[in-house]
Specification:
Oligomer: single chain
Number of strands: 16
Largest sheet: 7 strands, parallel
CATH architecture of the largest domain: 3-Layer(aba) Sandwich
Radius of gyration: 25 Å
Number of helices: 17
Bound molecules: ligand ME8
Shape: elongated
Structural class: alpha/beta
Distance between the termini: 43 Å
Strand content: 5-15%
Number of domains: 2
Length: 484
Protein backbone atom coordinates (compact mmCIF):
# COMPACT_ATOMS: atom_id res chain seq x y z
CA UNK A 1 0.00 0.00 0.00
CA UNK A 2 1.29 3.49 -0.86
CA UNK A 3 2.28 5.77 2.00
CA UNK A 4 1.70 9.47 2.43
CA UNK A 5 3.08 11.67 5.17
CA UNK A 6 1.87 15.26 5.41
CA UNK A 7 2.86 17.92 7.92
CA UNK A 8 1.90 21.50 8.73
CA UNK A 9 4.17 24.12 10.27
CA UNK A 10 4.09 23.74 14.02
CA UNK A 11 2.60 26.98 15.24
CA UNK A 12 4.03 29.41 17.74
CA UNK A 13 1.90 29.45 20.83
CA UNK A 14 2.18 33.17 21.46
CA UNK A 15 -1.07 33.48 19.52
CA UNK A 16 -4.28 31.57 19.24
CA UNK A 17 -5.07 30.16 15.78
CA UNK A 18 -6.37 32.52 13.11
CA UNK A 19 -7.59 32.04 9.58
CA UNK A 20 -4.01 31.96 8.19
CA UNK A 21 -2.81 29.20 10.51
CA UNK A 22 -6.10 27.38 9.91
CA UNK A 23 -5.47 27.48 6.17
CA UNK A 24 -2.21 25.50 6.36
CA UNK A 25 -3.97 22.85 8.45
CA UNK A 26 -6.99 22.70 6.13
CA UNK A 27 -4.74 22.24 3.08
CA UNK A 28 -2.87 19.42 4.85
CA UNK A 29 -6.18 17.82 5.91
CA UNK A 30 -7.45 17.92 2.32
CA UNK A 31 -4.26 16.26 1.06
CA UNK A 32 -4.43 13.64 3.82
CA UNK A 33 -8.05 12.78 3.04
CA UNK A 34 -7.35 12.72 -0.69
CA UNK A 35 -4.61 10.15 -0.19
CA UNK A 36 -6.92 8.17 2.09
CA UNK A 37 -9.58 7.89 -0.61
CA UNK A 38 -6.79 6.81 -2.93
CA UNK A 39 -6.41 3.89 -0.54
CA UNK A 40 -3.02 4.94 0.83
CA UNK A 41 -1.69 4.64 4.34
CA UNK A 42 -1.63 8.24 5.57
CA UNK A 43 0.04 9.97 8.49
CA UNK A 44 -0.85 13.59 9.22
CA UNK A 45 1.22 15.55 11.72
CA UNK A 46 0.53 18.98 13.17
CA UNK A 47 1.43 20.64 16.45
CA UNK A 48 2.90 23.57 18.31
CA UNK A 49 6.30 25.23 18.51
CA UNK A 50 6.64 26.07 22.17
CA UNK A 51 10.18 27.22 22.95
CA UNK A 52 11.96 30.54 22.54
CA UNK A 53 12.19 34.09 23.70
CA UNK A 54 8.88 35.17 22.18
CA UNK A 55 6.99 32.59 24.20
CA UNK A 56 8.97 33.25 27.35
CA UNK A 57 8.00 36.93 27.04
CA UNK A 58 4.32 36.26 26.26
CA UNK A 59 4.05 34.00 29.31
CA UNK A 60 5.71 36.62 31.49
CA UNK A 61 3.25 39.25 30.28
CA UNK A 62 0.36 37.01 31.33
CA UNK A 63 1.96 36.35 34.71
CA UNK A 64 2.26 32.63 33.94
CA UNK A 65 5.10 30.14 33.83
CA UNK A 66 6.09 29.23 30.25
CA UNK A 67 4.80 25.68 30.75
CA UNK A 68 1.40 26.80 32.09
CA UNK A 69 1.13 29.24 29.23
CA UNK A 70 2.01 26.78 26.45
CA UNK A 71 -0.29 24.09 27.87
CA UNK A 72 -3.24 26.45 27.61
CA UNK A 73 -2.56 27.63 24.07
CA UNK A 74 -1.77 24.15 22.76
CA UNK A 75 -5.29 23.17 23.92
CA UNK A 76 -6.74 26.12 21.98
CA UNK A 77 -5.06 24.87 18.82
CA UNK A 78 -6.41 21.36 19.36
CA UNK A 79 -9.95 22.55 19.96
CA UNK A 80 -9.85 24.81 16.91
CA UNK A 81 -8.70 21.95 14.67
CA UNK A 82 -11.58 19.88 16.04
CA UNK A 83 -14.05 22.61 15.06
CA UNK A 84 -12.57 22.60 11.55
CA UNK A 85 -12.95 18.82 11.32
CA UNK A 86 -9.20 18.26 11.02
CA UNK A 87 -8.32 14.57 11.17
CA UNK A 88 -4.66 14.64 12.22
CA UNK A 89 -2.89 11.53 13.47
CA UNK A 90 -0.54 13.21 15.90
CA UNK A 91 -0.33 16.57 17.59
CA UNK A 92 3.30 17.17 18.41
CA UNK A 93 4.53 19.68 20.98
CA UNK A 94 8.18 20.69 21.05
CA UNK A 95 8.05 20.34 24.84
CA UNK A 96 7.31 16.59 24.46
CA UNK A 97 10.11 14.55 26.01
CA UNK A 98 10.62 12.30 22.97
CA UNK A 99 10.90 15.37 20.75
CA UNK A 100 13.50 16.94 23.04
CA UNK A 101 15.42 13.68 22.88
CA UNK A 102 15.30 13.68 19.06
CA UNK A 103 16.59 17.27 18.93
CA UNK A 104 19.55 16.40 21.17
CA UNK A 105 20.15 13.34 18.99
CA UNK A 106 20.20 15.19 15.66
CA UNK A 107 22.41 17.94 17.17
CA UNK A 108 24.86 15.25 18.21
CA UNK A 109 24.89 13.74 14.69
CA UNK A 110 25.54 17.17 13.17
CA UNK A 111 28.31 17.81 15.68
CA UNK A 112 29.94 14.44 15.00
CA UNK A 113 30.01 15.40 11.33
CA UNK A 114 32.16 18.38 12.35
CA UNK A 115 29.49 20.89 11.30
CA UNK A 116 29.19 22.85 14.56
CA UNK A 117 31.68 25.47 15.77
CA UNK A 118 31.75 28.28 18.31
CA UNK A 119 31.86 31.88 17.11
CA UNK A 120 30.59 35.33 17.83
CA UNK A 121 27.62 36.99 16.33
CA UNK A 122 27.20 40.69 15.96
CA UNK A 123 24.26 42.22 14.20
CA UNK A 124 20.57 42.96 14.39
CA UNK A 125 17.92 40.79 15.99
CA UNK A 126 14.17 40.68 15.48
CA UNK A 127 12.66 39.39 18.74
CA UNK A 128 9.20 38.44 17.42
CA UNK A 129 10.73 36.51 14.50
CA UNK A 130 13.71 35.35 16.55
CA UNK A 131 16.05 36.02 13.63
CA UNK A 132 19.44 37.59 13.32
CA UNK A 133 19.75 40.05 10.46
CA UNK A 134 22.62 41.77 8.73
CA UNK A 135 22.65 45.46 7.77
CA UNK A 136 21.95 44.47 4.20
CA UNK A 137 18.93 42.40 5.14
CA UNK A 138 17.16 45.19 7.05
CA UNK A 139 14.40 47.06 5.26
CA UNK A 140 14.25 50.73 6.24
CA UNK A 141 16.07 49.75 9.42
CA UNK A 142 13.38 47.21 10.32
CA UNK A 143 12.79 43.46 10.06
CA UNK A 144 12.18 42.63 6.37
CA UNK A 145 9.72 39.84 7.25
CA UNK A 146 7.43 41.55 9.78
CA UNK A 147 8.36 45.23 9.52
CA UNK A 148 8.97 45.54 13.26
CA UNK A 149 11.85 47.15 15.15
CA UNK A 150 15.12 45.27 15.53
CA UNK A 151 17.65 45.47 18.34
CA UNK A 152 21.45 45.43 18.24
CA UNK A 153 22.94 42.15 19.46
CA UNK A 154 26.42 40.87 20.15
CA UNK A 155 26.52 37.30 21.33
CA UNK A 156 28.76 34.27 21.57
CA UNK A 157 27.12 31.53 19.67
CA UNK A 158 27.42 28.11 18.15
CA UNK A 159 27.15 27.93 14.38
CA UNK A 160 26.14 25.32 11.85
CA UNK A 161 28.30 25.14 8.70
CA UNK A 162 25.45 25.91 6.34
CA UNK A 163 27.85 27.37 3.74
CA UNK A 164 29.41 23.91 3.31
CA UNK A 165 26.10 22.67 1.81
CA UNK A 166 25.72 25.24 -0.95
CA UNK A 167 26.58 22.93 -3.86
CA UNK A 168 24.80 19.91 -2.36
CA UNK A 169 21.60 21.93 -2.01
CA UNK A 170 21.81 23.17 -5.57
CA UNK A 171 22.21 19.63 -6.84
CA UNK A 172 19.28 18.49 -4.67
CA UNK A 173 17.11 20.99 -6.57
CA UNK A 174 18.50 20.16 -9.99
CA UNK A 175 18.06 16.42 -9.43
CA UNK A 176 14.55 16.89 -8.10
CA UNK A 177 12.81 19.76 -9.81
CA UNK A 178 9.59 19.23 -7.83
CA UNK A 179 11.30 19.36 -4.43
CA UNK A 180 9.66 22.74 -3.86
CA UNK A 181 6.15 23.43 -5.16
CA UNK A 182 5.45 25.81 -6.89
CA UNK A 183 8.41 26.11 -9.18
CA UNK A 184 8.87 29.87 -8.69
CA UNK A 185 9.50 29.28 -4.99
CA UNK A 186 12.25 26.81 -5.88
CA UNK A 187 13.87 29.38 -8.20
CA UNK A 188 13.66 31.95 -5.42
CA UNK A 189 15.70 29.89 -2.95
CA UNK A 190 18.05 28.73 -5.67
CA UNK A 191 18.87 32.32 -6.64
CA UNK A 192 19.37 33.33 -3.03
CA UNK A 193 21.74 30.41 -2.43
CA UNK A 194 23.75 31.36 -5.50
CA UNK A 195 24.42 34.74 -3.85
CA UNK A 196 26.25 32.81 -1.12
CA UNK A 197 25.25 31.03 2.09
CA UNK A 198 26.25 32.22 5.57
CA UNK A 199 26.72 29.84 8.45
CA UNK A 200 23.77 29.69 10.78
CA UNK A 201 23.56 30.38 14.50
CA UNK A 202 21.89 27.46 16.24
CA UNK A 203 22.03 28.44 19.93
CA UNK A 204 20.95 31.21 22.27
CA UNK A 205 22.66 32.21 25.48
CA UNK A 206 20.03 34.56 26.83
CA UNK A 207 17.05 32.26 26.30
CA UNK A 208 16.30 29.84 29.12
CA UNK A 209 13.05 28.44 27.71
CA UNK A 210 14.55 26.00 25.26
CA UNK A 211 16.17 22.59 24.83
CA UNK A 212 19.60 22.52 26.53
CA UNK A 213 22.56 22.51 24.15
CA UNK A 214 24.51 19.48 25.34
CA UNK A 215 27.92 20.69 24.10
CA UNK A 216 27.73 23.77 26.30
CA UNK A 217 24.98 23.89 28.91
CA UNK A 218 25.05 27.66 29.19
CA UNK A 219 23.20 27.71 25.83
CA UNK A 220 19.85 26.49 24.62
CA UNK A 221 19.09 25.36 21.08
CA UNK A 222 17.67 28.08 18.87
CA UNK A 223 14.09 27.43 17.78
CA UNK A 224 14.62 26.35 14.16
CA UNK A 225 16.83 23.31 14.80
CA UNK A 226 14.38 22.43 17.56
CA UNK A 227 11.22 23.09 15.52
CA UNK A 228 12.21 21.50 12.20
CA UNK A 229 13.17 18.26 13.93
CA UNK A 230 9.47 17.77 14.81
CA UNK A 231 8.94 16.30 11.35
CA UNK A 232 11.20 13.40 12.33
CA UNK A 233 10.37 13.05 16.01
CA UNK A 234 6.67 13.12 15.07
CA UNK A 235 7.09 9.75 13.33
CA UNK A 236 9.20 8.20 16.05
CA UNK A 237 12.71 9.02 14.84
CA UNK A 238 15.37 8.08 15.95
CA UNK A 239 13.96 5.00 17.67
CA UNK A 240 11.47 3.95 15.01
CA UNK A 241 13.53 2.23 12.33
CA UNK A 242 10.52 2.13 9.97
CA UNK A 243 10.33 5.91 9.74
CA UNK A 244 11.96 5.89 6.27
CA UNK A 245 8.85 4.44 4.63
CA UNK A 246 6.83 7.48 5.63
CA UNK A 247 9.75 9.86 5.33
CA UNK A 248 10.37 9.08 1.66
CA UNK A 249 6.75 10.07 0.97
CA UNK A 250 6.68 13.23 3.07
CA UNK A 251 5.25 16.63 2.15
CA UNK A 252 5.74 19.70 4.32
CA UNK A 253 2.98 22.27 3.85
CA UNK A 254 4.39 25.68 4.81
CA UNK A 255 3.72 29.39 4.34
CA UNK A 256 5.97 31.32 1.96
CA UNK A 257 7.74 33.23 4.76
CA UNK A 258 9.28 30.01 6.07
CA UNK A 259 10.16 28.47 2.73
CA UNK A 260 13.85 29.26 3.30
CA UNK A 261 13.92 27.28 6.53
CA UNK A 262 12.22 24.29 4.95
CA UNK A 263 13.83 24.20 1.52
CA UNK A 264 17.36 25.22 2.49
CA UNK A 265 18.16 24.95 6.18
CA UNK A 266 16.20 21.78 6.89
CA UNK A 267 17.70 19.71 4.03
CA UNK A 268 21.15 21.00 5.03
CA UNK A 269 20.66 19.84 8.64
CA UNK A 270 19.47 16.49 7.31
CA UNK A 271 22.39 16.09 4.89
CA UNK A 272 24.74 16.79 7.78
CA UNK A 273 22.97 14.21 9.96
CA UNK A 274 23.06 11.65 7.14
CA UNK A 275 19.29 11.59 6.63
CA UNK A 276 17.53 11.98 3.27
CA UNK A 277 15.64 15.22 2.63
CA UNK A 278 11.83 15.14 2.75
CA UNK A 279 10.15 14.37 -0.56
CA UNK A 280 8.55 17.76 -1.11
CA UNK A 281 7.87 21.18 0.33
CA UNK A 282 4.54 22.75 -0.65
CA UNK A 283 4.71 26.51 -0.20
CA UNK A 284 1.40 28.31 0.17
CA UNK A 285 0.63 32.02 -0.10
CA UNK A 286 -0.86 34.38 2.46
CA UNK A 287 -4.36 35.40 3.34
CA UNK A 288 -4.49 39.15 3.47
CA UNK A 289 -6.91 41.94 4.25
CA UNK A 290 -6.59 44.92 1.93
CA UNK A 291 -3.32 43.37 0.80
CA UNK A 292 -1.86 43.14 4.34
CA UNK A 293 -0.94 39.73 5.75
CA UNK A 294 -3.41 38.46 8.32
CA UNK A 295 -1.63 38.07 11.63
CA UNK A 296 -2.51 38.41 15.29
CA UNK A 297 0.31 40.87 15.78
CA UNK A 298 -0.99 43.13 13.01
CA UNK A 299 -4.33 43.20 14.79
CA UNK A 300 -6.27 41.93 11.75
CA UNK A 301 -6.67 38.27 12.77
CA UNK A 302 -9.94 36.54 11.95
CA UNK A 303 -11.13 33.79 14.27
CA UNK A 304 -11.88 30.61 12.27
CA UNK A 305 -14.04 29.22 15.10
CA UNK A 306 -16.33 32.22 14.87
CA UNK A 307 -16.74 31.60 11.11
CA UNK A 308 -17.35 27.88 11.69
CA UNK A 309 -20.05 28.66 14.26
CA UNK A 310 -21.81 31.00 11.85
CA UNK A 311 -21.32 29.16 8.56
CA UNK A 312 -20.08 25.57 9.24
CA UNK A 313 -16.60 24.10 8.86
CA UNK A 314 -17.33 22.81 5.36
CA UNK A 315 -18.40 26.24 4.11
CA UNK A 316 -15.19 27.76 5.42
CA UNK A 317 -12.98 24.97 4.04
CA UNK A 318 -14.70 25.23 0.67
CA UNK A 319 -14.46 29.01 0.46
CA UNK A 320 -10.75 29.05 1.38
CA UNK A 321 -9.89 26.55 -1.33
CA UNK A 322 -12.17 27.96 -4.03
CA UNK A 323 -11.04 31.55 -3.54
CA UNK A 324 -7.43 31.24 -4.77
CA UNK A 325 -4.70 28.88 -5.85
CA UNK A 326 -2.63 27.55 -2.94
CA UNK A 327 0.53 29.44 -3.85
CA UNK A 328 -1.14 32.79 -4.50
CA UNK A 329 -1.91 35.44 -1.90
CA UNK A 330 -5.53 36.47 -1.57
CA UNK A 331 -7.75 38.85 0.33
CA UNK A 332 -10.14 37.11 2.68
CA UNK A 333 -13.71 38.31 2.34
CA UNK A 334 -16.72 37.18 4.33
CA UNK A 335 -18.97 38.50 1.54
CA UNK A 336 -17.34 36.12 -0.90
CA UNK A 337 -17.75 33.25 1.58
CA UNK A 338 -21.47 34.01 1.84
CA UNK A 339 -21.83 34.26 -1.93
CA UNK A 340 -20.22 30.84 -2.32
CA UNK A 341 -22.54 29.30 0.27
CA UNK A 342 -25.60 30.67 -1.50
CA UNK A 343 -24.50 30.19 -5.08
CA UNK A 344 -22.29 27.13 -5.11
CA UNK A 345 -22.95 25.07 -2.00
CA UNK A 346 -26.68 25.67 -1.52
CA UNK A 347 -27.77 26.25 -5.13
CA UNK A 348 -25.46 24.07 -7.26
CA UNK A 349 -24.75 21.17 -4.90
CA UNK A 350 -27.54 21.36 -2.32
CA UNK A 351 -30.33 21.69 -4.89
CA UNK A 352 -28.96 18.93 -7.07
CA UNK A 353 -29.07 16.47 -4.20
CA UNK A 354 -32.39 17.69 -2.82
CA UNK A 355 -34.33 17.70 -6.06
CA UNK A 356 -32.88 14.39 -7.19
CA UNK A 357 -33.79 12.67 -3.94
CA UNK A 358 -37.26 14.26 -3.99
CA UNK A 359 -37.86 12.61 -7.37
CA UNK A 360 -36.31 9.33 -6.25
CA UNK A 361 -38.61 9.14 -3.23
CA UNK A 362 -41.70 9.39 -5.42
CA UNK A 363 -40.41 6.83 -7.90
CA UNK A 364 -41.17 3.18 -7.31
CA UNK A 365 -39.47 1.62 -10.35
CA UNK A 366 -35.96 0.28 -10.80
CA UNK A 367 -33.05 2.71 -10.44
CA UNK A 368 -31.11 1.41 -13.39
CA UNK A 369 -30.08 2.38 -16.88
CA UNK A 370 -27.17 3.31 -19.11
CA UNK A 371 -24.46 5.74 -18.06
CA UNK A 372 -25.03 9.01 -19.92
CA UNK A 373 -23.18 11.45 -17.69
CA UNK A 374 -19.90 9.58 -17.30
CA UNK A 375 -18.31 11.30 -20.29
CA UNK A 376 -18.70 14.63 -18.48
CA UNK A 377 -16.56 13.45 -15.56
CA UNK A 378 -12.92 14.52 -16.02
CA UNK A 379 -11.51 12.16 -13.40
CA UNK A 380 -7.97 12.03 -14.82
CA UNK A 381 -7.77 15.81 -14.80
CA UNK A 382 -8.88 15.92 -11.16
CA UNK A 383 -6.29 13.32 -10.16
CA UNK A 384 -3.61 15.17 -12.09
CA UNK A 385 -4.50 18.46 -10.41
CA UNK A 386 -4.39 16.87 -6.96
CA UNK A 387 -1.07 15.19 -7.74
CA UNK A 388 0.21 18.70 -8.51
CA UNK A 389 -1.28 20.02 -5.25
CA UNK A 390 -3.61 22.22 -7.26
CA UNK A 391 -6.62 21.88 -4.98
CA UNK A 392 -8.22 24.94 -6.55
CA UNK A 393 -8.13 23.43 -10.03
CA UNK A 394 -9.32 20.02 -8.80
CA UNK A 395 -12.26 21.56 -6.98
CA UNK A 396 -13.13 23.66 -10.03
CA UNK A 397 -13.20 20.57 -12.26
CA UNK A 398 -15.41 18.75 -9.74
CA UNK A 399 -17.68 21.77 -9.76
CA UNK A 400 -17.90 21.70 -13.56
CA UNK A 401 -19.21 18.16 -13.23
CA UNK A 402 -21.83 19.33 -10.70
CA UNK A 403 -22.92 22.00 -13.18
CA UNK A 404 -23.07 19.45 -16.02
CA UNK A 405 -25.21 17.22 -13.80
CA UNK A 406 -27.57 20.12 -13.07
CA UNK A 407 -27.73 20.84 -16.78
CA UNK A 408 -28.64 17.19 -17.39
CA UNK A 409 -31.64 17.65 -15.07
CA UNK A 410 -32.74 20.76 -16.94
CA UNK A 411 -32.24 19.11 -20.34
CA UNK A 412 -33.92 15.80 -19.54
CA UNK A 413 -36.79 17.24 -17.46
CA UNK A 414 -37.27 14.09 -15.36
CA UNK A 415 -40.54 15.41 -13.90
CA UNK A 416 -42.05 14.84 -17.36
CA UNK A 417 -40.70 11.29 -17.64
CA UNK A 418 -42.15 7.94 -16.60
CA UNK A 419 -41.13 4.36 -15.87
CA UNK A 420 -37.92 3.14 -17.52
CA UNK A 421 -36.91 6.54 -18.88
CA UNK A 422 -37.28 8.15 -15.49
CA UNK A 423 -35.44 5.23 -13.86
CA UNK A 424 -32.59 5.80 -16.28
CA UNK A 425 -32.28 9.53 -15.58
CA UNK A 426 -32.49 9.00 -11.83
CA UNK A 427 -29.90 6.25 -12.06
CA UNK A 428 -27.53 8.68 -13.79
CA UNK A 429 -28.19 11.43 -11.28
CA UNK A 430 -27.68 9.18 -8.26
CA UNK A 431 -24.45 7.77 -9.57
CA UNK A 432 -23.20 11.25 -10.43
CA UNK A 433 -24.07 12.42 -6.91
CA UNK A 434 -22.27 9.44 -5.33
CA UNK A 435 -19.15 10.21 -7.36
CA UNK A 436 -19.41 13.91 -6.55
CA UNK A 437 -19.70 13.14 -2.81
CA UNK A 438 -16.62 10.92 -3.02
CA UNK A 439 -14.53 13.52 -4.82
CA UNK A 440 -15.69 16.27 -2.47
CA UNK A 441 -14.88 14.25 0.63
CA UNK A 442 -11.36 15.67 1.11
CA UNK A 443 -12.71 19.21 0.82
CA UNK A 444 -16.06 19.08 2.63
CA UNK A 445 -16.04 15.77 4.53
CA UNK A 446 -19.04 16.47 6.72
CA UNK A 447 -21.28 17.25 3.74
CA UNK A 448 -20.00 14.22 1.82
CA UNK A 449 -20.87 11.96 4.72
CA UNK A 450 -24.37 13.46 4.84
CA UNK A 451 -24.79 12.74 1.12
CA UNK A 452 -23.56 9.15 1.58
CA UNK A 453 -26.04 8.69 4.37
CA UNK A 454 -28.92 10.05 2.23
CA UNK A 455 -27.84 7.72 -0.56
CA UNK A 456 -27.95 4.86 1.93
CA UNK A 457 -24.35 3.82 1.30
CA UNK A 458 -21.09 3.93 3.16
CA UNK A 459 -18.30 6.24 1.99
CA UNK A 460 -16.65 5.19 -1.24
CA UNK A 461 -13.09 5.49 -2.54
CA UNK A 462 -11.49 7.01 -5.61
CA UNK A 463 -11.52 3.63 -7.38
CA UNK A 464 -15.35 3.66 -7.03
CA UNK A 465 -15.65 6.86 -9.04
CA UNK A 466 -17.26 5.17 -12.02
CA UNK A 467 -20.88 4.49 -12.95
CA UNK A 468 -21.95 1.07 -11.66
CA UNK A 469 -25.15 -0.48 -10.34
CA UNK A 470 -27.24 0.94 -7.53
CA UNK A 471 -28.01 -1.39 -4.63
CA UNK A 472 -29.45 1.01 -2.09
CA UNK A 473 -32.72 2.89 -1.72
CA UNK A 474 -31.84 6.56 -1.15
CA UNK A 475 -33.89 8.73 1.21
CA UNK A 476 -34.08 12.47 1.14
CA UNK A 477 -32.69 14.33 4.16
CA UNK A 478 -32.46 17.95 5.23
CA UNK A 479 -31.07 20.33 2.57
CA UNK A 480 -27.26 20.29 2.74
CA UNK A 481 -26.81 24.06 3.04
CA UNK A 482 -29.11 26.87 4.07
CA UNK A 483 -28.74 30.14 2.23
CA UNK A 484 -27.35 32.95 4.35
O1 LIG B 1 6.53 30.19 11.66
N1 LIG B 1 -1.93 33.42 5.53
O2 LIG B 1 4.99 29.51 13.24
P1 LIG B 1 3.78 30.52 13.04
C1 LIG B 1 -1.64 32.13 5.31
N2 LIG B 1 6.76 28.05 14.43
N3 LIG B 1 -0.99 31.36 6.19
C2 LIG B 1 -0.60 31.92 7.33
C3 LIG B 1 -0.85 33.26 7.64
C4 LIG B 1 -1.55 34.03 6.67
N4 LIG B 1 -1.87 35.29 6.85
N5 LIG B 1 -0.35 33.50 8.86
C5 LIG B 1 0.20 32.35 9.30
C6 LIG B 1 6.20 29.50 12.61
N6 LIG B 1 0.06 31.39 8.38
C7 LIG B 1 7.13 28.43 13.13
C8 LIG B 1 7.10 27.27 12.16
S1 LIG B 1 7.78 24.82 11.42
C9 LIG B 1 8.99 23.76 11.75
C10 LIG B 1 7.99 26.13 12.52
C11 LIG B 1 0.48 29.98 8.48
O3 LIG B 1 2.86 30.34 14.18
C12 LIG B 1 1.50 29.63 7.42
O4 LIG B 1 1.44 28.26 7.16
O5 LIG B 1 4.28 31.89 12.75
C13 LIG B 1 2.79 30.00 8.10
O6 LIG B 1 3.92 29.40 7.53
C14 LIG B 1 2.52 29.50 9.49
O7 LIG B 1 1.14 29.80 9.72
C15 LIG B 1 3.43 30.20 10.50
O8 LIG B 1 3.02 29.92 11.77
Amino acid sequence: MGKFYVTTPIFYVNDKPHIGTAYAVIVADILARWHKIKGEDVFFLTGTDEHGEKIEKSAEKMGKSPKEFVDEIAEKFKSTWKELNIEYDKFIRTTDKDHEYAVAFITDLINKKGDIYKGEYEGWYCVPDETFLTDLELKDGRCPACGREVKKMKEENYFFKLSKYQEKLLSLYSNNSSFVIPDFRLREVENRIKEGLHDLDITRKSVKWGIPFELDKSFTIYVWLDALTNYLSGIGWPNNKDFTELWSNSVHVVGKEINWFHSVIWPAFLMSAGIDPPKQVLVHGWWTIDGKKISKSFGNAIDPVDLVKRYSSDALRYALIKEKRIWDDGDFSEESLKARINGELAADLGNLVYRTLTLVEKFEGELEGTPELDSKLKLNKIVEAMDNFDTYLALSIIWDFIKETNKYVTDREPWKLKEKELGNVLYNLLEAIRIIATLLYPFIPHTSNRIFSQLGISASKLEDCKFTEIHSRPRKGEPLFKKV
